[in-house]
Structures are given as C-alpha cells and as structure tokens.
UniProtKB/TrEMBL annotation:
Official protein name in the record: Phospho-2-dehydro-3-deoxyheptonate aldolase
EC number assigned by the record: 2.5.1.54
Enzyme class: transferase
The organism of origin for this protein: Stackebrandtia albiflava
InterPro entries in UniProt: Aldolase_TIM (IPR013785), DAHP1/KDSA (IPR006218), DAHP_synth_1 (IPR006219)
Length: 342
C-alpha cells in the first residue's frame, strides 16, 4: 500500500488572518447577544466544485448585503462529508471524485477554495471531521461545527477546546441533546490537544478551553426540535451551565425530515419564535446551493448541484433569509418598545 507524508500546514497571509479574526469576533458577538442580528450559515451540504461554489458565494454575498442590518451570513464551505454509510467523503479526502483519495490534492483544493471565499469578504463555516486535517484549513474558518456523529468523540471535544473560533455541537442523530451539552462543557475545559506543527511533525499542547462553544439543534431520526417547546427545553438544559443560554437551529437534517423542501417550514418556525421575542435563538443553518436538489456522485458532476444532501436553490433561499431578517427587526423593535426606546 502506498503511503505519503502529509505536507506542513501552510502559513496564513497577514491580511487574511486579520479578516478572519474580525469575522470571528462578529460571530461571537452574535452568539452571545452583544450583536442582535441572527447568524445564518448557508451553503451546500459539501463542496465539490470551486467555480460553482464561488458563483454561489457571490449570490449569497448579495443577499447578505441586502440583509446586513439583521443577519450575519456565513458561507457553508464543507470539504468533508461525514458518513453513516459508505459514500463520497468530500473534497478533502477524494478531490477527484474517483476513489483515488489524493488527500494532498484535496488539502490544496479545499484551502484554495476557502482562501477565495475569505478574499471575497465572506466568512467561512465548516465542519471538522478528521481532526488531523483541521490545521490545514482552521485558520480560514470563522465558525465551525462538530457533527451529530462525532459529538461524543473525545478527540473532537479536545479539538474544539483548542480552536480559537466559535464551535457549535450538534445534538446526536437520535435527537438526544444532552451529549452536545456535555461536549460544550468538555470543550470549555483546558486539556491536551494534538495536531501538526509548522514543520509537519505531530505536536501536543494544553488548550485554554473554548468559551464560545454552543448547541445546534438539528432534529433526530424520527423527530424535529425546531419548535418552541423543544427550543425552550434545550435552553432550560443549557441554563444550568450558562447564565444566558443561546443556540443555533439547523433547518435541515432531522428538522426538515431529510426533505430539503421542508427547510423553509423549519425556518418559518424559527422566525416566528424570534419575532415573538425568543432571545435564545442566535442563528440558523440552511443547506443551499445554486440549483435545487442533488445528483448522484460521479467524477463528472453537473456544476452547481449538490452531490450529497439535496439543497434549496439560491432563488429559494432568498425569501427564507428575508423572512428571518423581518423576524429580527420585529424582535428588535419589540425589545425597544419594552425598554421605552423610540
């Protein structure tokens, strides 16, 4: 079996580092409520095509500018695809989509794409699946997720504890929320973390703990949890650990019953709660790409159409963002009225 060394993690251009640092500060402010906007993480289930992704990002950026007073929009750029069963594992592990698994090419492709998104002025979101590869892209990421399949993984909890960016933990695939809350507690604690040094050699250090980890409600195999009662229950569970609990709602996956066309329904539920003054909802997630639906995995996919989970089209995404923005304005004006502010 052929073996190849991993390359050293690349250095970050100073201007990119400064931009990403600023984006992370804004995300933290939104998650903590210091900024009253709603975080929106939108993009395809997994990226496979640089050109189409950048075309999508340009359209998403236009929507972000339109709603900049009410929403902070982050582009979902996921080069890994977590799997329950066998399937294409994503650009990072199989960039040529042919089973050749040229990971070194995947690292270069994923990084090139994320650099392009950052250079376009759009914050990057991703999910970390393989901890050892995190160091190749983490410097470009403004917000990250740990998925439902890895939320109980000690290595992912340690990883999150050492990342200098906000990280959301999803509830487990069966809908259980407590493992994600336990993960948040674990990641907030200083502990040994493992990764690659600039030389490419393995290294370890003791993290400071990550104070910006939070809960993501994504539904379960047989249930949704975007409704007011589920959100309130999750916030009460978080309140035992956090003085001002906040969470993000994923409108896809279990919350859409794995039907992309139901994502707007979940978003409407979230928007209604926000408009009613629910301050515990800090953000939403959407699976969205240039074209609606998805296609079978192949080495020659149609551009702009997901090869993994089905997505809303950019055109279908626009009214969802408009509804969320309107809800934020209503929440803001209601709060101002209660405070007697005109």
């Amino acid at each position: 079996m052929n073996r190849a060394p991993l390359p050293p993690p690349p250095a970050t251009a100073p201007e990119r580092s400064a931009r990403v640092a600023g984006q992370r500060r804004v995300v933290v402010d939104v998650l903590t409520g210091a900024d009253d906007r709603l975080l929106v993480v939108a993009g395809p289930c997994s990226v496979h095509d640089h050109q189409s992704t950048m075309e999508y990002v340009a359209g998403l950026a236009a929507l972000a500018r339109r709603h900049a007073d009410d929403l902070y929009v982050v582009a979902r750029v996921y080069p890994e695809k977590p799997r329950t069963r066998l399937g294409w594992p994503g650009m990072l592990l199989d960039p040529h989509m042919d089973g050749s698994h040229h990971v070194t090419d995947g690292i270069a492709a994923a990084r090139e794409l994320m650099c392009a998104v950052v250079d376009a002025g759009v914050p990057v979101a991703t999910e970390f699946v393989e901890p050892l590869l995190t160091g190749y892209v983490a410097d470009l990421v403004a917000w990250a997720a740990i998925g439902a399949r890895t939320v109980e993984s000690p290595s992912h909890r340690r990883l999150a504890s050492g990342l200098g960016l906000p990280v959301g933990f999803k509830n487990r695939t069966d809908g259980a929320v407590q493992p994600a809350i336990d993960a948040i507690d674990a990641a907030a604690t200083p502990q040994p973390v493992f990764g690659l040094a600039a030389s490419g050699r393995p290294q370890w250090w003791v993290s400071e703990g990550n104070p910006h980890c939070h809960l993501i409600l994504r539904g379960g195999d047989r249930s949704t949890n975007h409704d007011p009662d589920s959100v309130a229950d999750a916030l009460r569970a978080l309140a035992d650990r956090r003085p001002t609990p906040r969470l993000v709602v994923d409108c896809s996956h279990g919350n859409s019953r794995k039907d992309h066309r139901r994502q707007p329904e979940a978003a409407e539920s979230v928007a209604a709660q926000v408009a009613d003054g629910q301050a515990g909802i800090a953000g939403v997630m959407l699976e969205s790409f240039l074209h609606e639906g998805n296609q079978p995995h192949s080495s020659t996919p149609r551009p702009g159409l997901s090869v993994t989970d089905a997505c809303l089209s950019l055109e279908q995404t626009a009214p969802v963002l408009a509804g969320l923005a309107a809800a934020v304005r209503h929440r803001r004006h209601s709060a101002a009225g209660l405070l007697g502010v005109s």
